[in-house]
């Protein structure tokens, strides 16, 4: 190309002709989700196919960053949102979501879910769940610590996520708080020299761990299932902590100003179906909130199953957050 | 070359830029009356300024010996090396961080060598890690800006110096120092400003919450507290810091006033002996520091490159289009601003071109989102807004690269052009474009690569499937696809670098001797 | 006729006044001590310096406010008379059309001007490939094509050796006499003034003196000039 600047002009012209594909006549249900849910490798595409087969509609799952970004996006859009359903908040965020007044009750009472704890929320329905855990590589670290205190006493290095920018990071904050209450600052101080780095999101942490930079990474008990099932690699393992493991319950809710309220209701009910639920374990790598008839895929039985599940009620989580964050910052800033 | 028309166009562009930067702050509900910052904010500001200033200082100081060695030595592969050295600047942050970790991390190559000698690994995480990563990103930019400065010294001056029997010290004092005095503050300013809005790199390499930057505080305010005015306040703080740095750089900088040469290019005198060895060492060290992490990126990504899924290629194509459009926009704005800035004592074009770099892309994106919301579906705007924001963020580099040569052009040739009554378009074609082809090619290359790599604001506007390549890399990493992500990241690097190479080469090819 | 009417020029703290006429077709040497204001005067005539007060008239028309390129003026500077990246032919062609849209006839005229200045066949070269004398000739060739009635020379040949300079002055004389050009030439060398310019203006002590016959002025110098000439 003699003139790259000429190419610029051409490219500009091409870009303006953005393809717009709109299925004719069919109503459009827009679902707002976090990015990795919508991705080609997440549950999004399969769920779209499955729901469109029964709804006679055009389902669009739109990504809006991570879980926290999702709520901010809903709040930014307010009643103007073209979305009818928001999918991917967790219990640490639902209090703020409820307070925004933007969500409508789902009114579903006849579809009990399979969660390790009691859970009932008038606005939000769970679709999957998992336990937070520290994941390690058994080749590099054959014996993992069995509690936060053991971890703190070791000279192992871990990477975690920042509770100010990531939902697992916030989950860890709540985990320590739920397990230790007022002793949380002490635990954080003891952990300070074990924390190699704090990353903005999960993917940076996990990549650093896979790179061999850290001995352990904050993730989920089910993360090793990916390596086992998708890669045939059985070296990754989650460390079982004696304090118990904090739960992340992923939720979806209907927006009060939903352009398609009926379709939204149908989608929330569809979430409990086998067609929806069986997609989740090997795409989202979490436990389904309603166990499908066929059960879990092979490999999940290898995952640790903590005996104690920890979960702070949504209102408590919201009330504790600011103080817990300040404790965390103070302890790790030394 | 700042004729009245150019000045008017530049003024209109500057006004548009300021509006584009200010409108999001207002949309977020910025109120100057209730302006207060808490202790956490102040700590974030302190850390942000410290790390940005250190990063800028170290980058430009290291760049001096590297640029000088490259300017005065001729060796096989020199051109290739100069081009390759630009690559780290073009890397997506997470990819670069992983590359750095592969070399300098606890299990990295460097640490393994140290371990052979019985030494512990270097402590990477902390302020030193933040500075290391920022220097890795920005040293190439500083080297290129300085190299440009060296190349712009007319050969006549070196000849004069030689005839006067100047030693290395005299040469530095009378020729090189005035050039550095003119170029260094601007280069440091740009790097300082880039590092002002650092977020992921600062946090990850900083190793903990004490490495909280203003941008992270903005993220927190926007995403977790949904306190929009607080985010706007912090974004304003970033602008003010940038403006203060701009004023400081302006006070320090002195135009070198070398006068014109006959356009002969000549290398600075290249002393032999120990200096020659030192130059070789400097070049080798810089190449090692900058290219080894790149090699790590290459090694990780290469295996899966051939089997990338088609979605990745589609995203790549989309990203190229976005990058090319952004580049066109950047150049169309940077050129008039650079020409208008050539008039001595006129600072507003420079400020207007530098401020965007200090903008928080989160605040920019959120503000634009709020402004657009009542008018259009945000998803329809995903790509245009990305183009616009990328163009805006690339503007400071393009301006900085063009400004020095534009000023020289004005000093040397404006009088003759005026006395001959050359009309604006003729000046553009026969004077400005030929004289500025080299910096314009370089600037366009940087802008294109920058737009390829930048995540910017697209996440907020994201649509169903219209992903750009950086977003695709992010998604792959978020779905455990580490290998595919590494390959997609490599593709991103190769494409960014390819665009950069094409433009830069075009510029050098068309540069009027 | 060139008329300087109550002209008052300021550059920082430096000031220069001028009040005189010059007949069309005249050749005037401008001499005086360094820093005396010779270049300032020419800059003002060429339009690069706006006067504080007074007017510049050419054949009765006020040209004080005209842009440099719109004046009936060609100026040769001390240096930078050629664009280094354009060929000699392009540099010269700018005299015909500043947009460089040249017809076949224009190219022929350019070639003609190059021939007249002894640069035949060198049109394809860049300025850096030419000697100092050849660069001066190229600038003259462009002046020929521009064909403006006023030619201002700010010592463009100062760097040339005596033989070359003499050659250039001959060429300049031949060109300007034929075209009837009015020439103002700054020079340091009284011999150049005697040779080339029947009239001379002394610029010193904040004043551009009215033109006087060169011979009279130089033979019987006033104190300021005498000091400059070194004839104490």
TrEMBL record, chain A:
Key word NADP present: no
GO cellular component, one term: outer membrane-bounded periplasmic space
Keyword Transport: yes
Biological processes annotated in GO: thiamine transport
Gene Ontology MF annotations: thiamine binding; thiamine pyrophosphate binding
Keywords tagged on the record: Periplasm, Signal, Transport
InterPro entries noted in UniProt: ThiB, ThiB-like
Location of this chain's protein in the cell: Periplasm
CDD domains: PBP2_TbpA
One Pfam family it belongs to: SBP_bac_11
Family: Belongs to the bacterial solute-binding protein 1 family.
Name of the protein in question: Thiamine ABC transporter substrate binding subunit
Protein species of origin: Szabonella alba
Automatic annotation (TrEMBL), chain B:
Topology of the protein relative to the lipid bilayer: Multi-pass membrane protein
Keyword Ribonucleoprotein appears in the UniProt entry: no
One Gene Ontology CC term in the entry: plasma membrane
Cited InterPro entries: MetI-like, MetI-like_sf
Keyword Membrane: yes
Sequence intervals crossing the membrane: 53-71, 83-105, 125-147, 182-203, 230-253, 274-299, 319-339, 351-375, 381-403, 440-462, 482-503
Subcellular location: Cell membrane
GO BP: transmembrane transport
Keywords: Cell membrane, Membrane, Transmembrane, Transmembrane helix, Transport
Name of a matching Pfam family: BPD_transp_1
Domain ABC transmembrane type-1: 45-249, 316-503
Chief place of localization: membrane
Similarity-based family: Belongs to the binding-protein-dependent transport system permease family.
Identification of the protein by name: ABC transporter permease subunit
Lineage: Bacteria, Pseudomonadati, Pseudomonadota, Alphaproteobacteria, Rhodobacterales
Automatic annotation (TrEMBL), chain C:
Gene Ontology MF annotations: ATP binding; ATP hydrolysis activity
The entry's keywords: ATP-binding, Cell inner membrane, Cell membrane, Membrane, Nucleotide-binding, Translocase, Transport
One Pfam family, short name: ABC_tran
Residues covered by the ABC transporter domain: 2-230
InterPro entries: AAA+_ATPase (IPR003593), ABC_SmlMolc_Importer (IPR050093), ABC_transporter-like_ATP-bd (IPR003439), P-loop_NTPase (IPR027417)
Keyword Nucleotide-binding: yes
Protein's name in the database: ATP-binding cassette domain-containing protein
Organism: Szabonella alba
């Amino acid at each position: 190309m003699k003139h790259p600047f000429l190419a610029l002009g051409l490219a500009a012209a091409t870009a303006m002709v953005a393809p717009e594909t709109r299925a004719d006549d069919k109503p459009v249900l827009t679902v707002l989700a976090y990015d990795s849910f919508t991705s080609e490798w997440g549950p999004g595409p399969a769920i779209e196919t499955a729901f469109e087969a029964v709804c006679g509609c055009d389902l669009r799952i739109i990504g809006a960053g991570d879980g926290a970004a999702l709520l901010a996006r809903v709040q930014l859009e307010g009643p103007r949102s073209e979305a009818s359903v928001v999918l991917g908040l967790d219990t640490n965020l639902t209090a703020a979501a409820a307070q925004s007044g933007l969500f409508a009750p789902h009114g579903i009472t006849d579809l009990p879910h399979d969660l390790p704890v009691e859970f009932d929320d008038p606005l939000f329905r769970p679709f999957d769940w998992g336990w937070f855990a520290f994941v390690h590589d058994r080749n590099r670290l054959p014996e993992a610590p069995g509690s936060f205190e053991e971890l703190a006493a070791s000279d192992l290095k871990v990477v975690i996520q920042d509770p100010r920018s990531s939902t697992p990071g916030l989950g860890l904050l709540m985990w320590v708080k739920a397990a230790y209450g007022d002793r949380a600052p002490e635990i954080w101080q003891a952990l300070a020299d074990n924390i190699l780095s704090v990353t903005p999101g999960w993917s940076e942490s996990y990549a650093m761990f896979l790179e061999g930079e850290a001995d352990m990474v904050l993730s989920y008990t089910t993360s090793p299932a990916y390596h086992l099932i998708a890669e045939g690699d059985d070296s990754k393992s989650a460390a079982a902590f004696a304090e118990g493991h904090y739960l992340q319950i992923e939720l979806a809710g209907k927006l009060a100003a939903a352009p398609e309220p009926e379709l939204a209701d149908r989608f929330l009910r569809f979430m409990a179906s086998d067609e929806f639920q069986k997609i989740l374990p090997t795409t989202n790598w979490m436990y389904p909130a309603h166990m499908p008839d066929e059960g879990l895929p092979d490999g999940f039985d290898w995952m640790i199953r903590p005996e104690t599940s920890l979960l702070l009620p949504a209102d408590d989580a919201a009330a504790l957050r600011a103080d817990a964050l300040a404790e965390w910052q103070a302890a790790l800033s030394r | 070359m700042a004729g009245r028309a150019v000045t008017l166009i530049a003024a209109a562009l500057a006004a548009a830029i300021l509006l584009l930067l200010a409108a999001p702050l207002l949309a977020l509900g910025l109120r100057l009356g209730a302006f207060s910052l808490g202790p956490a904010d102040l700590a974030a500001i302190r850390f942000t300024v410290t790390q940005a200033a250190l990063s800028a200082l170290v980058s430009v100081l290291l760049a001096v010996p590297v640029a000088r060695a490259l300017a005065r030595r001729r060796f096989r592969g020199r051109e290739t090396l100069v081009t390759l050295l630009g690559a780290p600047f073009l890397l997506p942050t997470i990819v670069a961080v992983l590359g750095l970790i592969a070399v300098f991390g606890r299990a990295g190559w460097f640490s393994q060598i140290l371990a052979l000698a019985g030494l512990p690994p270097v402590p990477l995480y902390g302020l030193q890690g933040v500075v290391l990563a920022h220097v890795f990103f920005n040293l190439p930019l500083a080297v290129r800006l300085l190299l440009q400065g060296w190349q712009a010294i007319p050969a006549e001056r070196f000849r004069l110096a030689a005839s006067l029997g100047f030693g290395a010290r005299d040469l530095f004092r009378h020729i090189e120092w005035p050039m550095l005095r003119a170029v260094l503050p601007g280069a440091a300013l740009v790097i300082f400003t880039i590092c002002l809005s650092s977020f992921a790199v600062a946090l990850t390499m900083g190793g903990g919450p004490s490495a909280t930057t203003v941008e992270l505080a903005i993220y927190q305010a926007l995403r977790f507290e949904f306190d929009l005015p607080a985010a706007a306040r912090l974004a304003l703080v970033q602008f003010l810091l940038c403006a203060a740095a701009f004023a400081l750089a302006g006070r320090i900088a002195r135009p070198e006033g070398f006068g014109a040469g006959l356009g002969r290019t000549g290398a600075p005198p290249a002393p032999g002996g120990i200096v020659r060895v030192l130059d070789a060492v400097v070049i080798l060290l810089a190449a090692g520091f900058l290219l080894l992490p790149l090699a790590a990126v290459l090694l990780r990504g290469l295996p899966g490159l051939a089997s990338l899924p088609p979605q990745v290629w589609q995203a790549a194509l989309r990203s190229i289009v976005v990058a090319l459009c952004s580049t066109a926009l950047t150049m169309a704005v940077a050129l008039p601003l650079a020409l208008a800035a050539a008039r001595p004592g006129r600072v507003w074009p420079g400020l207007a071109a530098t401020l965007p770099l200090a903008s928080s892309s989160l605040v920019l994106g959120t503000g634009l989102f709020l402004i657009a919301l009542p008018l259009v579906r945000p998803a329809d705007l995903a790509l245009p807004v990305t183009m616009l924001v990328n163009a805006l963020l690339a503007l400071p580099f393009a301006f900085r690269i063009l400004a020095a040569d534009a000023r020289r052009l004005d000093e040397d040739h404006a009088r003759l052009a005026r006395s001959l009554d050359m009309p604006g378009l003729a000046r553009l074609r026969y004077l400005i474009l030929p004289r500025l082809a080299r910096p314009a090619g370089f600037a366009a290359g940087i802008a294109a690569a920058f737009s390829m790599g930048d995540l910017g604001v697209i996440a907020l506007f994201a649509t169903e499937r219209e992903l750009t390549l950086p977003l695709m890399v992010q998604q792959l990493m978020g779905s455990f696809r580490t290998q595919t992500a590494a390959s997609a990241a490599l593709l991103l690097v190769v494409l960014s670098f390819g665009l950069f190479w094409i433009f830069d080469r075009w510029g050098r090819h068309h540069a009027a001797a | 006729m060139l008329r300087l009417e109550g002209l008052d020029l300021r550059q920082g703290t430096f000031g220069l006044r001028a009040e005189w006429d010059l007949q069309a077709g005249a050749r005037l040497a401008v001499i005086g001590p360094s820093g005396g204001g010779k270049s300032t005067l020419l800059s003002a005539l060429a339009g690069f310096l706006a006067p504080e007060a007074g007017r510049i008239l050419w054949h009765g028309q006020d040209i004080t406010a005209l842009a440099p390129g719109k004046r009936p003026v060609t100026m040769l500077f001390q240096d930078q008379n050629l664009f280094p990246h354009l060929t000699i032919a392009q540099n010269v062609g700018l005299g015909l059309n500043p947009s460089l849209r040249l017809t076949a006839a224009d190219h022929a005229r350019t070639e003609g001007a190059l021939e007249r200045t002894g640069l035949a066949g060198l049109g394809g070269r860049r300025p850096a490939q030419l000697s100092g004398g050849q660069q001066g000739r190229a600038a003259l060739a462009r002046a020929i094509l521009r064909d403006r009635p006023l030619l201002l020379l700010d010592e463009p040949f100062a760097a040339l050796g005596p033989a070359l300079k003499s050659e250039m002055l001959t060429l300049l004389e031949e060109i300007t006499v034929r075209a009837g050009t009015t020439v103002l030439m700054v020079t340091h060398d009284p011999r150049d003034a005697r040779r080339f310019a029947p009239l001379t203006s002394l610029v010193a002590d904040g004043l551009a003196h009215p033109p006087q016959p060169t011979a009279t002025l130089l033979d019987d110098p006033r104190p300021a000039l005498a000091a400059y000439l070194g004839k104490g």
